TrEMBL record:
PANTHER family: DYW DOMAIN-CONTAINING PROTEIN, PENTATRICOPEPTIDE REPEAT-CONTAINING PROTEIN. Belongs to the PPR family. PCMP-H subfamily. One of its GO terms (biological process) is RNA modification. This is DYW domain-containing protein. InterPro entries: DYW_dom, E_motif, PPR_At4g14850-like_plant, PPR_rpt, TPR-like_helical_dom_sf. Keywords: Repeat.
DNA sequence: TGCGAAACAT
């Protein structure tokens, strides 16, 4: 079915003064609810596009297009069917602007604020309403603010804030809560959000959740968890949405113990187990290292959405259990769930992390052929990763050259890593140099080139990179590893000596080094990003945050218990090799989450098969 | 004359 859509921006050309003076048609219908009620009832239940189109005809035939209530319900119905422009073509075919009221406009604004289309449309109709001389009601503002949040436009948000104060709606808690949320979403808006939050006379669970979610989205997960504690102290009862936000902070921190506590809290307090909450739990367990628990929860869910399936597939992929991920994907299709783009990203990354090259290729083509999904840059990225990991560097490069969209720096970096691992050093060097020209302020581009020179054993070039970076004032992301112990998260950052057990930890690190050397470990110094001699390199390696965290765990946890750590970057080659030795020497399972996946070290082996 | 807020998978 085809609809002709009136594009919002064309509406600028409507002469509003003319509209206002035109005679009102069908005046008789305006105030008689009984006449329009059947039409409203049908609109309420309208759930398909053909029905909507039929109603459209009826509305015109009956002259209801001048009835604001009918227009409003038609707009809601269209919005539910993701066909807002269709409603707009009806609404703005009206000849007399006097049928427009604040309720109709707040419905239009809502439709655009909640749609996947440009949030600018919502702002446009807000301004259009003002242009018509219609005073907004307070119900419009949560949606106008939602649009500002979607646009992440702080200045716009501030302007709307000023305007709603002028209309006197700033004492409404719904409006206040949405303002907190809006400021949390805008870049640079956190301080405004926090100020509002701190000054609000009454905080309900929604206010707290908006603020907690704000910290979580910014990656300030520890702050989010801290605020959740304050919420409990304040005696405000968290609800299901609060738990979802807190769980996503746990997931980010890799805080399995806290996550388990939240799960038991949910059970104890009988928090409503929505499908979103179950999904958040599944995701948390998978990303905090207990993928079997995630699978168990997933199996017990009475209702599953595409998000549930994707979470568990991605979880398995991260743990290197690609075959299980693939079979779950097949099970998902068999259950009638239609996979969409994100599910394929999870699936392709599962193939990639488990070396399932042929499967990956098949799924990539099935995605388009069978499901009509146009591959996005992330899908191409997965394929480059898949080919690169498998050592098919030339094919990966050809794949990139044939891509119909511009490759992004992530794809180039994947290729460069592959070049280093598989010995295509000259190629890696030239791609690196090109990438540095395009993206001169990105630290990892230099690290990659430096590692290539390390493998070439070209120390002179390697040290030049460090000088170049210093000159450009490039910010380095320090490696950091987190570990949870007794309801506390300990973070170890390279070069940070502030931990109160620092001296003991260093002693332990040195002891670990001696034991490992006795067992045949040789430090991998080619990746050290410092211009220093070999002995100091070893020293620098032994201070890596991963090793500090493992030493801390060996000192503070019972013998034989598993060690779970979370690293912010990808695990370095030396720490990976050292972890294998440590797992055997100290008889510990080490579960390490790095930026891209999990490594389960056990008895001298890693689940990633040394491929990550 | 009808209406509103916070959350999950890359």
């Amino acid at each position: 079915m085809r609809f002709s859509y009136l594009k919002p921006r064309l509406l600028h050309s409507i002469n509003t003064s003319k509209l206002k003076t035109t005679t009102l048609h069908h005046q008789s219908n305006m105030n008689h609810r009984a006449v329009e009620q059947p039409c409203l009832d049908i609109l309420q239940a309208c759930n398909t596009l053909p029905k909507l189109a039929q109603l459209h005809t009826h509305i015109i035939k009956l002259g209801f297009q001048n009835n604001p209530l009918v227009l409003t319900k038609f707009t809601s119905a269209s919005s539910n069917l993701d066909a807002i422009p269709y409603a707009m073509s009806l609404v703005f075919s009206v000849e007399d602007a006097r049928v427009y009221d604040a309720f109709l406009f707040s419905t239009i604004i809502r439709a655009y604020a909640e749609s996947s289309q440009s949030k600018h449309n919502a702002i446009f109709y807000y301004n259009l309403m003002l242009g018509y001389g219609i005073s907004p009601n307070k119900y419009a503002f949560p949606f106008v603010l939602k649009a500002c949040a979607g646009l992440r436009d702080l200045n716009l948000g501030k302007a709307v804030h000023g305007s709603l104060v002028k209309f006197g709606f700033d004492d409404d808690i719904f409006v206040q809560n949405t303002m907190v949320h809006m400021y949390c979403c805008c870049s640079g808006g956190m301080e405004f959000a926090r100020k509002l939050f701190d000054e609000m006379p009454k905080l309900d669970p929604v206010t707290w959740t908006a603020m907690i979610g704000g910290y979580a989205r910014l990656g300030q997960s520890a702050g989010a968890v801290g605020l959740f504690r304050k919420m409990q102290i304040a005696g405000v009862c968290p609800d299901d949405v609060t738990m979802v936000s807190v769980l996503s902070a746990c997931t980010d921190l890799g805080a399995l113990e806290l996550g388990k506590w939240i799960e038991s809290y949910i059970e104890k307090e009988r928090v409503l187990k929505t499908v979103e909450l179950s999904n958040a739990l599944v995701d948390m367990f998978a990303k905090c290292g207990d993928v079997d628990k995630a699978l168990g929860l997933f199996r017990n869910m009475s209702k599953r959405t595409i998000v549930s399936w994707t979470s568990v597939i991605v979880g398995l992929a991260m743990h290197g259990r690609g075959l299980e991920a693939v079979s779950l994907f097949e099970e998902m299709k068999a259950s009638g769930m239609v996979p969409e783009d994100i599910a394929f990203i999870g699936l392709l990354s599962a193939c990639s992390h488990s070396g399932l090259v042929e499967r990956g290729r098949q799924y990539f083509s099935e995605m388009t052929r069978q499901f009509g999904i146009v591959p996005k840059i992330e899908h191409y990225g997965c394929m480059v990763d898949l080919l690169s990991r498998a050592g098919l560097v030339t094919e990966a490069l050809e794949f990139v050259e044939r891509m119909p969209i511009e490759p992004n720096p992530i794809i180039w970096r994947t290729l460069i890593s592959a070049c280093r691992v598989h010995g295509e050093l000259k190629l890696g060097e030239s791609i690196s140099k090109q990438l540095i020209r395009n993206e001169p302020m990105h630290e990892s581009n230099y690290v990659l080139l430096s590692n290539i020179y390390g493998k070439m054993l070209d120390w002179e070039k390697k040290s030049k990179i460090r000088v170049a970076m210093g000159k450009k004032g490039i910010q380095k992301v320090p490696g950091s590893t987190m570990i949870e112990l007794d309801n506390e998260i300990h973070e170890f950052i390279v070069g940070d000596r502030s931990h109160n057990q620092y001296n003991e930890i260093i002693k332990m690190v040195n002891e670990m080094g001696r034991e490992m050397k006795r067992a045949g470990y040789a430090p991998t110094t080619t990746e050290v990003f410092l211009d220093i001699d070999e002995e100091d390199k070893e020293d620098a390696l032994s201070r890596h945050s991963e090793k500090l965290a493992i030493a801390f765990a060996l000192l503070n946890t019972p013998p034989g218990s598993p060690i779970r750590i979370t690293k912010n970057l990808r695990v370095c080659g030396d720490c990976h090799s050292a972890s294998k030795f440590i797992s055997k020497i100290y008889n510990r399972e080490i579960v390490m989450r790095d930026r891209s996946r999990f490594h389960h070290f056990r008895d001298g082996q890693c689940s990633c098969g040394d491929f990550w």
